[in-house]
Each structure stands twice: as structure tokens, then as C-alpha cells.
Design a protein that fits this description.
4-stranded antiparallel beta sheet; 4-stranded mixed beta sheet; alpha+beta; 2 domains; elongated; transmembrane helix; YcxB-like_C; membrane; YcxB family protein
Length: 174
Amino acid sequence: MEFTTATDYDMKTLTAMAKALRKTVRKRKSRRAHIFGWIVVLLGTLLLLPPAGSSFSISGKTLLTLAAVLAILLTFIFEDRLNGYFARKRLLPGTESAVSVFKEDSYHTETRSGQTDWPYDRIVAMAELPDCFILILGENHAQAYDKARLKGGSPEEFARFLEARTGLSIVRIS
């Protein structure tokens, strides 16, 4: 059995990859960062409250505290997009799109920059999002595969194929 797919590494795909990394191999680190962030937001919000018996006044410290709290909240909301943006900045020229062929023993990826054969044992985690599959090769390295451009079988068959080749379960992410 052989599957083929093409992927464009645009912002949507890079955001999906960042989300998959955050919810799989970076899960523990991400949870700690979120807990710390929410504690800072809570403390910052408490600092914004005026002392008992006094009125609310806007000072430089108040504006700075408010800006820090808003920055952390915006980072939480747009975390995956921010990580996708920075990943896009680090993309090597010629790797903006790839065509991959999945065979029984390995998979072959071709970009304008070159070709690589990947053994399935290099994969440390896998994720499935509504539009793509993400193969995770490390804490900072993932590859995306577009479901809409998949040839050789259905996405369900491809998922079973990957699970059989890697011995790993696919994490479903909505």
C-alpha cells in the first residue's frame, strides 16, 4: 500500500503544527507555562484593584501592569498562531511546499530544496487535526500532511497505516 500527499506550509498549516506540538510532546511544559501565566494574570489583576476606601486612578504603574496582563492574555489566545509565525520565519527557502510518498518501510519527502527518506521509527508522536495529519519528530520539529490532497486511500486508512508502521496512536485534536 502506498499513500501520496502534498502539503503547502502556509500559516494555517504552521499554526496546526504548533498546536499539535503543544498538545503532544510539549504538553507538560505548556501546562506549566499556562499555570505560571494565569498566576501572573491573577496577581496583575489584583494589583489593578484600588486599595479599600480609595478611588481608582490611572498611573504609569497601573498602565504597565494592565499592558503586561493584556500581553499575557493575548499570548494565550494567539499562542499557536505566534508559534506558527515564528516557524514561518525559520522556514528554509525551497521548503514552503512538499510532496510525500508513504511506503511500507519508510516515507519519502521532496521539496524544491531536496529529497529525504524518513524511517517510521523517527516519529515520536502523531496528531490528527480536521485538515491534516502531523508527524512529530521532536520537541521542535514536525511535518504536516494535507488530508484534502491525500491519494492512495482515505484519511482513516492512512491513519491506520501510520499507526501500524509506527506502533503509536494518533492523538485527535479538534
